[in-house]
Write a structure and sequence with these properties.
single chain; 316 residues; alpha/beta; Rossmann fold; 20% strand
Length: 316
C-alpha cells in the first residue's frame, strides 16, 4: 500500500540539518514550511519557525530539549493545524532531531494528520548518540504512516574513503531527491531505506554501492520492494538504464523504476528506496527494544526532563 500525499502540505525541519533540508525543498512540492529548533542559529527570517527554549542551559540534554518541546506543544499544534500531510525531516544523530521528532510525530498522530517522516541515523562511532537515535526512531515509526531512513553508517561502510562532511552532503542530496519526487512517484506506507553512492562512479558501480548500503541495513529476505531512481537520467544511454533496472529486478523480489529524465546534472548516480519488513539493524540501537510494547510502562510518553523549580534544601 502506498502513502498518499495530499495537499495542503507542510514540510517541517528539525534542528540544523532539518532547517537546511527544508530550505532546499520548500519550492518543489508547492508546500509551506516550518522550522523547529532549540538553537536560534537554525531559525530563518524567511521561514515560519518555533523556537524551543531551554532558558539559561547552554548545553541541554536530549531529555531537557524534549521536555521544553512539550512546553511549546500548543504552538506547534497550531502551526500544524489545517494541513493534510506533514513531511518531517530530522537528523536523529543530533540532539534537536532525536529530542523533538518524537514529540512532533505524536502531535501529528493525535491531530489525525498524515505524517511521512525522514530520518538520518548516526555513524556507529558516535556511540553516545546511538541509543537516543534508536529510541527516537522507534517512536517516530509508531506515530508515522510512512518512515524513510537514511543510515550514515552504512554509507560510510560502503565508501570508507569518504569524510564525514562528504557523507553528510551525499545523504542530504539523496534525501532531497526522494522528497522532491513525492509529487510524481509512489512511496510505500511502511519503513523505507534510502541507499545511494558517492558521485563520479559508473552507473553499475553506483548501483553496486547502493545495494551494499541497503544490505548493510537489512538482510535480503526482509526487502519487500525497491524503487530505483536514476539521477541525471537524460545524460545516460537508454541501454545502460535498461541494464541496471533489469539487474535490480533480478536481485530483489519486485522492482519499480523511477527515471529522472528532467535532471541535467553532470554526475549521474543511483538512489534506491526500499521498503523493508521490520527495522533489522536499528532494532539493536535500543537494548530495551526487545521488551514488547504491551509490557512497557512508559511507552506513552518519551523520556524527558523539566525544571520544576522546587525549593529543596540539602540536609546534612
Amino acid at each position: 500500500m502506498s502513502f498518499q500525499v495530499k495537499e495542503p502540505i507542510l514540510v517541517i525541519g528539525l534542528g540544523g540539518v532539518g532547517s537546511k533540508l527544508v530550505t532546499d525543498v520548500k519550492n518543489s512540492l508547492n508546500s509551506d514550511c516550518l522550522i523547529i529548533s532549540n538553537d536560534k542559529k537554525d531559525i530563518s527570517e524567511d521561514i515560519p519557525s518555533v523556537h524551543v527554549t531551554t532558558d539559561s542551559i547552554i548545553n541541554p540534554s536530549v531529555q531537557l530539549i524534549r521536555g521544553s518541546t512539550y512546553n511549546t506543544s500548543d504552538e506547534i499544534e497550531s502551526k500544524i493545524s489545517g494541513y493534510s500531510t506533514v513531511i518531517l525531516m530530522s537528523n536523529l544523530a543530533g540532539k534537536a532531531g532525536s529530542a523533538i521528532a518524537p514529540v512532533v510525530s505524536e502531535i501529528c498522530k493525535e491531530a489525525g494528520t498524515g505524517l511521512i517522516s525522514f530520518a538520518i541515523m548516526p555513524f556507529k562511532y558516535e556511540k553516545n548518540k546511538i541509543f537516543n537515535s534508536g529510541v527516537a526512531l522507534k517512536r517516530v515509526r509508531a506515530n508515522s504512516e510512512c518512515t524513510v531512513v537514511l543510515d550514515n553508517d552504512s554509507l560510510l561502510d560502503s565508501n570508507p574513503d569518504l569524510s564525514p562532511k562528504e557523507c553528510y552532503d551525499i545523504a542530504n542530496s539523496a534525501m532531497i531527491h526522494v522528497v522532491k519526487s513525492l509529487g510524481k512517484s509512489e512511496i510505500s506506507s511502511e519503513t523505507n531505506i534510502i541507499s545511494t553512492s558517492k558521485d563520479g562512479q559508473s552507473m553499475e558501480d553506483s548501483l553496486r554501492d547502493s545495494l551494499k548500503m541497503l544490505y548493510g541495513n537489512a538482510p535480503p529476505n526482509s526487502i519487500k520492494r525497491s524503487m530505483l531512481y536514476v539521477v541525471g537520467g537524460n545524460n545516460i544511454p537508454i541501454g545502460v538504464i535498461n541494464s541496471i533496472t533489469n539487474l535490480t529486478a533480478g536481485i530483489v523480489n519486485e522492482s519499480n523504476s523511477q527515471i529522472d529524465m528532467t535532471s541535467n546534472v553532470k554526475d549521474s548516480k543511483v538512489v534506491m528506496l526500499s521498503s523493508i519488513q521490520g527495522m533489522a539493524k536499528f532494532d539493536n540501537y535500543d537494548p530495551l527494544g526487545i521488551i514488547p510494547q504491551e509490557n512497557t510502562l512508559d511507552w506513552s510518553t518519551p523520556d524527558c526532563s523539566i525544571d520544576c523549580e522546587l525549593d529543596l534544601y540539602q540536609l546534612e
